[in-house]
Structure formats: structure tokens, C-alpha cells
């Protein structure tokens, strides 16, 4: 793979953590811990004037004491000390830096920008959370994340640090290759990160949360690149209202711009627009497994007539068409349904419960086999503690295997619990998603992408940065997996 200009930033060969600390919970302590425990493969040099040892590593008192040049310097410092330390790092010869300090004073911010541009380095921040490159085991974030990350094919690029933590730390169903909180983008913009992500063979979907495109021409070029490579891009653009646009300017210095321009831009380059974080997450989970949808519409089955009616209403609002069932499919449904249940799509399969679950599975298999079904949805309500009924998982995976079509499990409401089986199922190719409106928006985006040129097959990375193809996740998962 050809080198990329962001390699020193996102895939560095060595890192100095300036402001590394032993104080529990501090940014300097968390960033060093995550870098070491995340398995970074190159040298890590903690830097702190007190010296000593941190995480089993000798702590240097100054970056000038480094025995050899480092490629990337990560700064865990406040605004009052960042300029002097940054200047020392530039004199040392670093090629990239990450700054999480707020750089609240505009004069300080412009000074850091000018220093970086003059030195020709690439910089993440300031006033950001940092980034995670899970593919290459580079975890440069000063806030603790969950310990169970599995490198995958999703990319998240965001102007919101809080959304960064919400989708990376709290959503285990999305396996990331790269997640970046870009902050003030003093030298490196969201378009630059997108360009890097599009060059990585593991990238399957990109989610954007943006206030504005600070480098418009480059942003347009990278969207065109994503379209040419048929990599789905989903965007949550804020600043639709005058009030929101003003807040974007005060938050990160971004000028939100005319939203109609973004609407036209996203339509031109097949970027899927979403309106909420839930819609963004659902789309990032569904689009990779629905990349090659055939002709037809949605087929869904429910164990509630009322919830089926709600699905019809919401699908109409979302512009999602239901599959028109063939006479053969109708006959198969009639043979499996209790008397009085109409053989229609969407289907209410629950009657007296006789011959359950065989008839229930027969109904879903019939729906999935219909020639006009492109995508199947098994709609349910989670049970106590947020658990997904094991039978529903089994039926969904068997239907996917038998039909060769994508299947999604849709929970009307997640509730307060969680279920590891939902994570395992999503990784194995049947996403378990929550909230019908968000899922229907994701379905609409998947249907809208039909007709785009199929993505050429490429190799995906396995954990550790090697280029071997990783083994596919299987269902059911092995005990203890």
C-alpha cells in the first residue's frame, strides 16, 4: 500500500507522550495507559519533568532528552504550557502531533497553527479528544474507552468530542478501523482524514458528524473519491438553523454554511444524510451488510399487529417500500398462519401459538424467498434486561443463510439493558438494531445506494496490522466467545 501523508499522524512508528502522568484519571495517565495496553507496536516515550518510571517505561524529563527522533508527539498539557512544549517538539523534528488542549485564546491557537504550518507537520486538534486507529493499535485519546474493541471496517470522523465517546465507547456493535475527533483542525481537516480512510483496505463505511467543511474543495474531492470506490458515507450535518450555525462557530470555529449547499453536495456524491445519532449508528451498522442489495423492497415480520401498523406508518414517512408478495409466497404463508391472520407484508405472524416456532420460521423463510424481497427485518421487542430472544437470533441467521439476502433484527425499543448476543449477531452479519425510525432511515439509505458500481474485492486487515484476511465471525458464536 502506498504511503499516505497522514501516516506519521495516524500510523506513526514511534510516539512521545508529553505530559505523561502517574496521577490516576489524568489525561496524561489515561493516554499512556491506552497506548501501552492497546498494544502499540513501536517505541513509546513518556515525557514528564519529574522523570521516573511510568508503565514500566523510563520517563524522560524533556523531549530534548530523547535518544532518537520520534515521529509523533502527543501533548497532554494545558494551554499555559503547550506552546513551549510544542516548540521543543518541532525543534526535535517530530512529523506529527496530537493536541487535546482547548487552545481557548485565539492568539495561542493561531500561534500553534503557524508553528505547525511552518514546520510542515500534520496535527490532530486542538480542542479534540484525539483518535483511535484500532487497525494499527494506535490509541491516542486521553479519556478511557471500553476494553473490548475488535478492529473492524467502520470509520467515524467527528467534530464533536462527546459524540466520539458516545459511539466509540458506548456502542460495542460497531467495530472500528479508525475514529477521529478532529477538534479545531488547525492543519488537518476532516477531508484529510476521510482521504486516509478511503485508502485503507479495511474501510467498509464512514460516518461523519460535521459542523462545516473547512477545506471545501478538498472535501468535495474526497466525497467524489468515496463515490468512485463505492464506500458508503453517512453524514450527520448540524447547523441547519441559524441558532445551530452560530453555536458551531463558537464551538470549533467552523462556519456552518448554507445547508441547501450541503444537501445538493451530498445528493451529488451519494452521501446518505441522517438526522440523529441513532440514525447515524444504525446506518453504520446496516450499510456494510446491505452493500449488494438486489431488486425489491423490505419484508418484515412482527409478533404484534399494533407494532406492525406502526411499522407501516413509519415506513411511509421514511419512503421505504415493502415487497409485493407473489402468489406462491402468499400460499406458503397461508399454510403456516393461524386462521384469521392475513398473508401480507408486513406480516403479523402471532396467533394462537400453535406449532410455534416452526410456523413462525416458515413464515419468515417464505418472506425472504420472495423474488421482490431485497432486505428482511425481524421486528421484535427485547425481553427482560434488554435480552434478545435466542430463537429470534437463530431464525434470522438461518433465513439469511438460506436466502442469501441481508437480514436485520429490529427492536422497537432497547430499554435499559444490554445483550452480548446482540453484539455477536451484529458481528456475524445480522445486525441487531434499536428504534424503528432510525432503522428505516438506514434501510432507505441502503435502497438508495442500489445501482452504484459494486466495490472491487479487496483485502481486509486482521488485528495487529497484518494484511491477512481475518476469519469471518460465525454464528452461533463459540462458547465463551
From TrEMBL:
InterPro entries: CoA-bd, NAD(P)-bd_dom_sf, Succ_CoA_lig_flav_dom, Succinyl-CoA_synth-like. Residues 9-104 form the CoA-binding domain. The keyword Cytoplasm does not apply. The keyword Methyltransferase does not apply. One of its GO terms (biological process) is tricarboxylic acid cycle. Residues 450-481 are annotated as: Disordered. Keywords: Tricarboxylic acid cycle. Residues 452-462 have a biased composition (Basic residues). This is CoA-binding domain-containing protein. It comes from Inquilinus limosus. Gene3D superfamilies: NAD(P)-binding Rossmann-like Domain (3.40.50.720), Succinyl-CoA synthetase domains (3.40.50.261).
Amino acid at each position: 500500500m502506498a504511503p499516505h501523508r497522514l501516516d506519521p499522524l495516524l500510523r506513526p512508528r514511534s510516539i512521545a507522550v508529553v505530559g505523561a502522568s502517574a496521577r490516576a484519571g489524568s489525561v496524561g495517565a489515561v493516554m499512556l495507559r491506552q497506548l501501552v495496553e492497546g498494544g502499540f507496536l513501536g517505541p513509546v516515550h513518556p515525557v514528564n519533568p519529574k522523570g521516573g518510571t511510568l508503565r514500566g517505561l523510563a520517563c524522560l524529563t524533556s523531549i530534548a532528552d530523547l535518544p532518537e527522533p520520534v515521529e509523533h508527539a502527543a501533548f497532554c498539557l494545558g494551554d499555559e504550557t503547550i506552546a513551549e512544549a510544542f516548540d521543543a517538539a518541532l525543534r526535535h523534528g517530530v512529523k506529527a502531533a496530537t493536541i487535546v488542549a482547548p487552545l481557548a485564546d485565539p492568539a495561542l491557537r493561531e500561534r500553534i497553527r503557524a508553528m505547525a504550518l511552518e514546520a510542515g507537520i500534520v496535527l490532530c486538534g486542538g480542542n479534540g479528544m484525539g483518535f483511535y486507529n484500532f487497525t494499527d493499535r494506535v490509541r491516542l485519546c486521553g479519556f478511557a474507552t471500553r476494553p473490548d474493541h475488535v478492529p473492524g471496517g467502520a470509520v467515524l470522523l467527528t467534530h464533536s468530542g462527546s459524540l466520539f465517546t458516545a459511539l466509540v465507547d458506548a456502542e460495542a456493535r460497531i467495530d472500528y478501523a479508525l475514529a477521529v475527533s478532529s477538534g479545531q483542525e488547525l492543519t488537518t481537516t476532516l477531508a484529510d482524514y476521510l482521504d486516509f480512510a478511503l485508502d485503507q483496505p479495511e474501510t467498509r463505511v464512514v460516518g461523519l458528524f460535521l459542523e462545516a467543511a473547512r477545506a471545501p474543495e478538498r472535501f468535495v474531492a474526497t466525497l467524489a473519491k468515496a463515490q468512485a470506490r463505492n464506500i458508503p458515507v453517512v453524514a450527520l450535518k448540524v447547523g441547519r438553523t441559524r441558532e445551530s450555525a452560530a453555536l458551531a462557530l463558537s464551538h470549533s470555529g467552523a462556519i456552518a454554511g448554507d445547508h441547501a449547499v450541503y444537501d445538493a453536495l451530498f445528493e451529488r456524491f451519494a452521501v446518505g444524510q441522517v438526522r440523529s445519532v441513532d440514525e447515524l449508528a444504525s446506518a453504520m451498522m446496516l450499510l456494510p451488510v446491505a452493500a449488494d442489495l438486489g431488486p425489491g423492497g423490505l419484508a418484515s415480520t412482527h409478533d404484534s399487529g399494533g407494532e406492525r401498523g406502526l411499522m407501516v406508518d413509519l415506513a411511509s414517512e421514511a419512503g421505504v417500500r415493502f415487497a409485493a408478495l407473489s402468489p406462491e409466497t402468499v400460499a406458503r404463508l397461508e399454510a403456516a398462519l393461524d386462521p384469521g391472520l392475513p398473508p401480507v407484508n408486513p406480516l403479523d405472524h402471532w396467533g394462537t401459538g400453535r406449532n410455534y416456532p416452526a410456523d413462525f420460521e416458515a413464515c419468515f423463510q417464505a418472506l425472504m424467498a420472495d423474488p421482490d424481497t431485497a432486505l428482511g427485518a425481524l421486528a421484535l421487542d427485547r425481553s427482560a434486561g434488554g435480552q434478545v430472544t435466542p430463537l429470534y437470533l437463530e431464525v434470522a441467521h438461518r433465513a439469511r443463510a438460506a436466502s442469501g439476502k441481508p437480514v436485520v433484527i429490529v427492536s422497537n425499543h432497547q430499554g435499559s439493558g444490554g445483550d452480548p448476543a446482540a453484539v455477536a449477531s451484529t458481528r456475524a452479519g445480522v445486525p441487531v438494531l434499536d428504534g424503528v425510525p432510525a432503522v428505516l432511515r438506514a434501510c432507505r439509505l441502503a435502497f438508495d445506494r442500489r445501482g452504484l458500481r459494486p466495490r472491487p474485492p479487496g483485502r481486509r486487515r486482521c488485528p495487529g496490522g497484518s494484511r491477512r484476511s481475518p476469519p469471518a465471525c460465525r454464528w452461533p458464536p463459540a462458547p465463551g466467545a
